[in-house]
Design a protein that fits this description.
The complex is a heterodimer of chains A (about 650) and B (about 210). Chain A has about 650 residues and is mainly α. Chain A folds into four domains: about 10-125, Helicase, Ruva Protein, domain 3 (Orthogonal Bundle), CATH 1.10.8; about 140-280, Cyclin A, domain 1 (Orthogonal Bundle), CATH 1.10.472; about 300-385 and about 575-645, no CATH class; about 405-570, no CATH class. Helix content of chain A is about 60%, strand content about 5%. Chain A contains 31 helices and eight strands. Chain A has a two-stranded antiparallel ribbon. A two-stranded antiparallel sheet of chain A has the order 3-6. A two-stranded antiparallel ribbon of chain A has the order 4-5. The radius of gyration of chain A is 28 Å and the shape is globular. In chain B, strand 5, helix 5 (about 135-145) and strand 6 form a beta-alpha-beta unit. The longest helix of chain B is centred in the C-terminal third of the chain and has 20 residues, at about 165-185. The two termini of chain B are about 30 Å apart. Chain B has helices spanning about 20-30, 75-80, 95, 100-110, 135-145, 165-185; strands at about 5-15, 45-50, 55-65, 85-90, 120-125, 155. Chain B has a six-stranded mixed β-sheet, sandwiched between helices. Chain B has one domain (about 5-185): Rossmann fold, CATH 3.40.50. The chains are: A mainly alpha (about 650), B alpha/beta (about 210). At the A-B interface, helix 2, helix 3, helix 9 and helix 13 of A face loops of B.
């Protein structure tokens, strides 16, 4: 189905779109225009294989076809990945690829499309999705920059000892910019560069994803003696250590491919180990704050809500059983996301889940990071009617053609039907849970809008009702959609959809805010829930402990039974005055959020009773350790604890 | 080492992409100009030894990347900066409008003790393209006054290509930074004195 191709839209489609006005953000287009003419040296070096320096007078006219190719590839990528757009320096990276990804059948020696897809692999599979992001500025890169500093301390203690902490930070950050942003293009000899890229692209995916760290450590390892000499003899500082490291890189030996492999083993660097450090760097208040700042203003969430959700997301990252997940690159996958979405937006039923997941734009590993999740949830939970209608339309207009064909309309009708059904059910369960489980049989179900009043017998077999429901209502929605097609071209444009939807109570009901629905007359409510005794999601209202948006410093006394029941599979929608939560309330989260906020508010109130979890280290560990939990995630929480306090 | 107790000044050049930061640095340090500079990634530095008021000073001039997302090079990088050169292109009004954001970002990252009086200098580059000028001189004068009425920032119009005004501009910033450094040294003596003899190291660019 076309929907599956959404994130994999073909090169030709993307090229076509990149030519439309406004498809590439102006800042990106301007920067590309500026940088492509500056690729002369790289093209001479990597494509023409003629060594040149900036003092030479180069004939750039012979490179016009290559420069045009670079420009096209970068523009197409900027359309494919709006979040990254164009990263300065990558015109040179693409120059290198033109000479590397060869295709003899093409007169120029390369095929633009092949080069493009290799570039995509680098941007989306090797590096984390926010590595090159424009907002918050290069966040993933800055995280890796800090990771590099930590790795130097761990793996190259001789070097770390001679440099004061601040100098080490400064040196590693400058080197990270030079090496990671350029993916070493232009920084090491050609043979070494080829070896590195081959290793990165052909080693196992998890080895490729950390190759930049291995390479950096390898160069620094070789440069250590010179750096130590310079510092002890000349009183040099970080800036000279940086220059020495760059020089070593520029003259490094050629056997990079094999060396990377053995070095990765000798440093004991695995993707899991790197990911563990990354996750801990990411909870640095500075990064958390940057992320909230970037999202505040472009989402409907307020700051305190974003902070709450961010904490919950961090908690999910840490507590999910890592053994089932080969990789959690700062994001969560479909399996984890499914129950979360079912809780937060119960009205979107399972039928729309796959499409919804596409709207979240998972990265190449199938992971959705916090920012993407927030952007989508902002519209889904708190968006204006127009935003919601737009999103719903986009779900089915996967190829961005601006209209839906009949097949897509059928899909949409199915989802709308499901949403409609779920809305009514959700409204019903606002009554106390006991009533939903004791409702009598054989009640009549009345739908909300008069023109589709359909009375459905509540038969003994609930699945039969659902079948019948599924059969009847989608047709009603389909009829509505077909009627919206004002120009009768069997295609539904967004304008038609929007104008039709805002005057159609049946559809409006699907997108209504739940709170409005509660305030609406009770006649709208069905008299019983079809889901009452089912295993399907039931929406329960439950007040969270942090209703005012301020995270609890200490958890209230929690018994083990209560904790276990809270952590069970019962879906909750924690919703206080429009607040949403990614979690069902669990003891572990209360503990987690307590530790995360403790650094700013470390006081312990003495009058707490003994059962309460005191906000200091020892009880925290005891409390957590007394519970049978995955030791890995335990270690994660503990580590993070230490990280935040120090 | 022969010269102990040398003074090291860390000067950072900031400004939009393509305004000529790398060219200005290369013109000042190496007296050369090229059309072939690659886009700068992260930061590079060159050093130059100069004499000011009979004092030997090593200027460490840091050239930075211009794209907006590179505005933050990490707090560790800006720490210890003694002066900041803001560059715009007189043929490109956007680069002029962005001066504010470069200045603010610098102050936020470097966190100098006295942000009001931190040594800044503004350079309007590419005066060799006078006929394409789109930022009048009055505009930059007003901007400098608006930032600090008592002590307006110094500004120069330069051409890295023809070496116009480059020498004077860097001399001026060195003087201001040195003066400011001495004032500050009354309180924190070690702040700007670097016991570096490493200036004898090669000071070539990396590309």
């Amino acid at each position: 189905m076309a929907l599956a191709a959404r994130s994999n839209r073909s090169f030709r489609d993307l090229s076509r779109r990149s030519l439309l006005p406004g498809a590439v953000l102006e800042a990106d287009a301007r920067q590309i225009e500026l940088d492509v003419p500056r690729t002369g040296l790289s093209l001479y070096r990597y494509v023409l294989h003629i060594p040149a320096t900036e003092d030479d007078v180069l004939d750039l006219t012979i490179l016009k076809p290559q420069m045009d190719s670079i420009k096209r590839i970068l523009m197409v990528y900027a359309v494919r990945n709006v979040r990254v757009g164009y990263v300065q320096g990558h015109a040179d990276v693409v120059s290198f690829l033109l000479g590397k990804v060869l295709d003899d059948t093409n007169a120029l020696g390369y095929n633009e499309e092949h080069v493009f897809w290799v570039y995509c692999i680098i941007m989306e599979r090797i590096f984390p999705s926010d590595f090159f992001a424009r907002m918050p500025k290069l966040q993933g890169f800055h995280v890796d920059m800090d990771v590099l500093a930590k790795l130097i301390q761990l793996k190259l203690p001789r070097l770390a000892q001679v440099l004061p902490e601040s100098d080490l930070q400064c040196m590693s950050s400058l080197l990270a910019f030079k090496w990671f942003i350029t993916v070493f293009v232009g920084e090491v000899p050609d043979k070494a560069l080829n070896g590195y890229w081959e290793y990165m692209l052909t080693a196992t995916p998890s080895a490729g994803a950390i190759a930049h760290f291995v390479m950096a450590l390898m160069i620094l390892d070789a440069a250590t003696d010179d750096i130590i000499d310079s510092i002890t003899q000349d009183d040099g500082d970080a800036s000279f250590a940086y220059k020495i490291a760059l020089e070593h890189a520029a003259y490094m030996d050629d056997e990079v491919f094999d060396n990377l492999k053995t070095k990765a083993e000798s440093y004991a660097l695995t993707e899991e180990a790197i990911e563990a450090i990354r996750v801990n760097v990411r909870v640095n208040p500075h990064y958390m704050e940057q992320e909230v700042c970037a999202l505040h203003g472009i989402t409907h969430f307020d700051r305190s809500q974003l902070e709450q959700l961010q904490l919950e997301f961090q908690f999910i990252l840490r507590t999910t059983n890592r053994n089932n997940l080969p990789k959690l690159a700062g994001g969560i996958n479909k399996e984890i996301l499914r129950p979360i979405l079912a809780r937060v937006i119960p009205e979107w039923g399972p039928k729309s889940m796959d499409q919804l997941f596409e709207v979240l734009q998972p990265d190449a590993r199938g992971h959705v990071d916090f920012q993407r999740l927030m952007l989508a949830l902002s519209v889904l939970c708190k968006g204006t009617l127009e935003e919601k209608l737009r999103l719903c339309f986009d779900l089915y207009d996967a190829e961005k053609l601006g209209h839906l064909d009949v097949e897509q309309m059928i899909l949409m009708a199915g989802s709308l039907c499901e949403m409609y059904h779920n809305k009514l059910t959700a409204t019903d369960t606002t009554a106390p849970p006991t009533t939903t489980t004791t409702t009598k049989k054989n009640n009549k179900y009345r739908s909300a809008s008069a023109d589709t009043a359909q009375i459905i017998d509540d038969e003994d077999d609930k699945s039969a009702i659902f079948d019948r429901f599924g059969r009847v209502l989608p047709t009603a929605f389909m009829q509505k959609l077909l009627r919206m097609d004002a120009d009768c071209d069997r295609k539904l444009s967004f304008k038609e959809w929007y104008q039709g939807a805002i005057t159609e109570p049946l559809i409006l009901r699907c997108f209504e805010d739940e709170d409005e629905a509660i305030a609406a007359p009770t006649s709208r409510r069905p008299s019983r829930s079809f889901w009452a005794e089912d295993k399907q999601p039931i929406v329960l209202r439950r007040r969270s402990n942090s209703s005012d948006g301020v995270l609890p410093i200490r958890s209230p006394p929690i018994s083990r039974e209560k904790a276990l029941s809270a952590a069970s599979d019962t879906p909750y929608k924690r919703k206080d005055g429009g607040r949403i939560s990614l979690l069902s309330p669990t003891t572990e989260f209360e503990l987690f959020s307590a530790t995360m906020t403790m650094s700013s508010q470390p006081t312990v109130t003495p009058e707490d009773d003994q059962e309460s979890v005191e906000a200091n280290a020892t009880p925290f560990y005891e409390e957590v350790e007394s519970r049978p939990r995955n030791p890995d995630s335990l270690c994660q929480v503990a580590w993070c604890y230490g990280c935040v306090i120090s | 080492m022969a010269h102990r107790k040398k003074v090291l000044l860390k000067v950072i050049i900031l400004g939009d992409s393509g305004v000529g930061k790398t060219s200005l640095m290369n013109q000042y340090v190496n007296q050369k100009f090229s059309n072939q500079y690659k886009a700068t990634i992260g930061a590079d530095f060159l050093t130059k030894e100069i004499t000011i008021d009979e004092k030997l000073v090593t200027m460490q001039i840091w050239d930075t990347a211009g794209q907006e997302r590179f505005q933050s090079l990490g707090v560790a990088f800006y720490r210890g900066a003694d002066a900041c050169v803001l560059v715009y292109d007189i043929t490109n009004p956007i680069s002029f409008e962005k001066l504010d954001s470069w200045r603010d970002e610098f102050l936020a990252q470097a966190g100098p003790r006295d942000p009001e009086n931190f040594p800044f200098i503004v350079l309007g580059n590419k005066v060799d393209q006078e006929n394409e000028r789109r930022v009048p001189t009055q505009k930059i004068e007003l901007w400098c006054k608006a930032k600090n009425a008592q002590q307006p920032m110094s500004f120069f119009e330069t051409s890295a290509k023809e070496a116009t005004g480059v020498e004077e501009a860097f001399q001026t910033i060195a003087k201001i930074a040195l003066q400011k450094g001495q004032d500050d040294d009354i309180f924190v003596p070690a702040a700007t004195i670097d016991l570096s003899g490493a200036a004898t190291k090669s000071s070539g660019g990396c590309c």
